[in-house]
């Protein structure tokens, strides 16, 4: 009899990238970064209205500005990875490979999926792949696998497509169905790591998931216990390793 496989899903937090600001006030640059720009005409309207709000005397935007900004915030030009992202994925792959090698002949190896639940639109996979990550975006039938064949992120779930945003538990339920892990049999564990206290940490808890808060600046020490809080992504892998 083949032993049951203990299956885990680990959901990467919503914003695994550091967004670099345009030479605008931080508030306006943040607004541009976070708005869904999936449809070109919608993106153009968002950009135009943002600039006219802060520069009401401006009669019209330069002809190529809108296209330039749309490109910037849909590619690596507008973002950079946190320093611990690449080491995190390397550690994650090593952990998975080691865990698989410890299973006996009558046991199935540990299966691991890495996904992203994002309160955003479908720019996310292209941005991450342009920054060097291997992304298999199953929801849109596309992928950007590294030259060595490694996939870092198995799927991306966008609130833009689902119709719900974190902390609504329905987007977490859709993520579970997207993973199809429960259908494989055995024990499944779901862990979400996010940097937003209400949307990510509390949202995942409310959906019945294990939840870790990524607290890089130590701002939530009073709100979240040290057992459910990490200061960097590499600490996440250590937590998963310790939990077996």
How are the elements arranged and paired?
Elements lengths: L5 E7 L4 E3 L6 H9 L5 H15 L10 H8 L6 E3 L3 H17 L9 E8 L5 H7 L4 E3 L4 E3 L10 E4 H4 L6 H11 L7 E8 L2 H10 L3 E5 L14 E2 L2 H10 L2
Parallel strand pairs: 1-4, 1-8, 4-7, 8-9, 9-10
Antiparallel strand pairs: 2-3, 5-6
Helix pairs in contact: 2-3, 4-9
Write a concise keyword list for the protein shown above.
alpha/beta, two-stranded antiparallel sheet, disordered N terminus, 9 helices, single chain, 19% strand
Structural description of this entry:
- This protein is 37% helix and 19% strand.
- The protein is built from nine helices and ten strands.
- It has helices at 26-34, 40-54, 65-72, 85-101, 124-130, 159-162, 169-179, 197-206, 233-242, and strands at residues 6-12, 17-19, 79-81, 111-118, 135-137, 142-144, 155-158, 187-194, 210-214, 229-230.
- It has a six-stranded parallel sheet with strand order 7-4-1-8-9-10. It has a two-stranded antiparallel ribbon with strand order 2-3. A two-stranded antiparallel ribbon has the order 5-6.
- Helix 4 (85-101) packs parallel to helix 9.
- It is globular.
- Mean pLDDT is 74; it is low at 1-7 and 16-41.
């Amino acid at each position: 009899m083949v032993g049951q496989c203990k299956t885990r899903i680990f959901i990467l937090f919503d914003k695994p990238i550091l967004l670099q600001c345009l030479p605008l006030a931080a508030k306006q640059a943040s607004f541009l970064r976070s708005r869904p720009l999936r449809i070109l005409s919608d993106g153009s309207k968002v950009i135009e209205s943002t600039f006219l709000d802060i520069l009401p005397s401006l009669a019209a935007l330069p002809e190529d500005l809108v296209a330039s900004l749309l490109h910037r915030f849909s590619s690596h030009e507008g973002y950079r990875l946190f320093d611990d992202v690449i080491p995190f994925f390397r550690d994650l792959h090593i952990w998975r490979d080691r865990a698989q090698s410890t299973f006996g002949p009558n046991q199935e190896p540990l299966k691991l999926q890495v996904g992203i639940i994002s309160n955003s639109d479908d720019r996310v996979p292209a941005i991450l792949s342009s920054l060097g990550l291997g992304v298999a975006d199953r929801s849109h039938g596309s992928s950007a696998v590294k030259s060595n064949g490694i996939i870092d992120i198995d799927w991306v779930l966008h609130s833009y497509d689902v119709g719900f945003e974190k902390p609504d538990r329905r987007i977490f339920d859709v993520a579970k169905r997207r993973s199809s892990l429960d259908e494989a049999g055995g024990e499944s564990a779901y862990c979400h790591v996010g940097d937003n206290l209400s949307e990510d940490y509390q949202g995942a808890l409310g959906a019945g998931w294990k939840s870790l808060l990524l607290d890089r600046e130590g701002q939530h020490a009073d709100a979240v216990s040290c057992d459910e809080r990490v200061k960097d992504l590499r600490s996440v892998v250590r937590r998963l390793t310790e939990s077996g």
